[in-house]
Amino acid sequence: MSNSPWKKRSEAADYLRRSPKTLANWASEGRGPRFTRKEGRPLYHINDLDTWARSGSDSALLQQRGRPLAVGGQHG
Asked: Terminus of the chain with fewer CB atoms < 10 Å: N or C?
């Protein structure tokens, strides 16, 4: 995974241990982690992935990955 805080859908899916197709389906249904588009492609910020995982049934995922549940920083 790249060092950038912005993740392609495939990287975001890997991070959340989901398939890219699942993230695409969620996006089309208006759910799942927040994302933005650049040149028509979805990009997910790592803070949004953490926030989303922490807010729902996937909160155990972050603990499983050994990541802190507190998320710092902002992006614009």
From this structure: C
Can you give the pLDDT of all 76 residues of the chain as single tens digits? 668 999 999 999 999 999 999 999 999 998 899 999 999 999 999 999 999 998 875 544 545 555 544 444 444 4
Report the relative pairing of strands 36-38 and 6-8 from DSSP bridges: unpaired
Q: Which helix (H) or strand (E) holds 13?
A: helix 9-16
Residue type, 30: G
pTM: 0.71
Asked if residues 45 and 30 have their Cβ atoms less than 8 Å apart, the reply is no
